[in-house]
Amino acid sequence: xxxxxxxxxxxxxxxxxxxxxxxxxxxxxxxxxxxxxxxxxxxxxxxxxxxxxxxxxxxxxxxxxxxxxxxxxxxxxxxxxxxxxxxxxxxxxxxxxxxxxxxxxxxxxxxxxxxxxxxxxxxxxxxxxxxxxxxxxxxxxxxxxxxxxxxxxxxxxxxxxxxxxxxxxxxxxxxxxxxxxxxxxxxxxxxxxxxxxxxxxxxxxxxxxxxxxxxxxxxxxxxxxxxxxxxxxxxxxxxxxxxxxxxxxxxxxxxxxxxxxxxxxxxxxxxxxxxxxxxxxxxxx
Amino acid sequence: xxxxxxxxxxxxxxxxxxxxxxxxxxxxxxxxxxxxxxxxxxxxxxxxxxxxxxxxxxxxxxxxxxxxxxxxxxxxxxxxxxxxxxxxxxxxxxxxxxxxxxxxxxxxxxxxxxxxxxxxxxxxxxxxxxxxxxxxxxxxxxxxxxxxxxxxxxxxxxxxxxxxxxxxxxxxxxxxxxxxxxxxxxxxxxxxxxxxxxxxxxxxxxxxxxxxxxxxxxxxxxxxxxxxxxxxxxxxxxxxxxxxxxxxxxxxxxxxxxxxxxxxxxxxxxxxxxxxxxxxxxxx
Lengths: 285, 284
Description:
The complex is a heterodimer. By secondary structure, chain A is an alpha/beta fold. Chain A contains 10 helices and 11 strands.
């Protein structure tokens, strides 16, 4: 069972929900797909025992074979190759590693070398497995790290994927293939605006989902009305309290506090219910 | 012309709150919302639309089943696993065109895709440039570049552009910060805030962008706040402002107005002071 946690808007509480649920449910895996700014480890404090580098491929031009014909640069849609005075210049940061220039070169002058873009770290906290991807500073695209992490997921156990904010390729790659999406929002106009983006994204990918309202308070109706109109289940709320913000600021877990643990229990219960319903629907289909 | 970008690393630290206030305080500035994946500033700035364009930031491979002999060379060439059963998965396709080169039968063509829309509005004689990336689309960095370009083209006052950036440190952020005179990094006194700030500062350093730091809700955690301050002063990053935790900010958010319009709000006072300091730093 793969559950993705996303939001559209940044800072709504994705990581808070994801790490606390992973610990509450136990025997789970937590995968931090926000490779640009991974934060889950701050709360889970795992001992990372494994580290793996992630490379993508970049072209290497053999100068003896290259005639400077420019076919490789003509091919490259991302403008990562240019030919100046019959010499090929590579801009490795913008290369997507597609390998098409190898095919495009009529003189077999293009081979490949590796470019380091980041790393994947794996460790444990009790019965929770923790995986995080870390994008190297200055690298624009973390998608290959996300893909590599997802290849390593054992689908039989419960896995919670903490997704990046936004709505572009990094989020698509994080949520693709997950069984259920947990959408975290806050009861503000910004929260609602960006929640709608997240809802459109999961429906485009055909992933069922439910909503958690973080920093819940008197304006919840803003989100509740939208959810009932769209037929999206509301899975729970975390109240807006300064103490919660302080616990978060220290890097502590809310489930370690009995008075806050109950909110996550409720989310877990409702989540279990809707996931069973979805599975039942799937079986009928 | 000066360009000031507001970023944060971590999401939800208050970028848009600061950007909205700065754009109100800087009466001659143009504004560009470069958080194209989840834009919010257009909800605060009402203007008269003067430009609306489709944006084609990506392309996708299309296989002509009439010409396809099902040899499978396209799928073999695709590094993104986007070709299955001789059909292209549009979401997985990066538009590189390797499959087109690999196909011996000319069955693959590349089609430009509309991946977003960008807009320019005028309000009070100023320019507001913003955009919306299509759901799940590629090419968000390119769209950011378009938004900034349009802001510069339409701006006639030639004084300042305030750029509201996106969370993270990847392509959209890189496209937002390159070429700016300075970046204002909005953080909060939390463990996550500090870790993400460090990565965002490193990104600014990597691209040679001068960085100033704003600690929002600074009084939420005194220990974390001084940890952030120490980190910055030891490494020579200017702390441009400390904004107190203030429920007035929420009220402003609810009213969809910049918080600096609220007299007596402690956050508003601190933002005004920070604005003056940042403008001085920019002028140096």
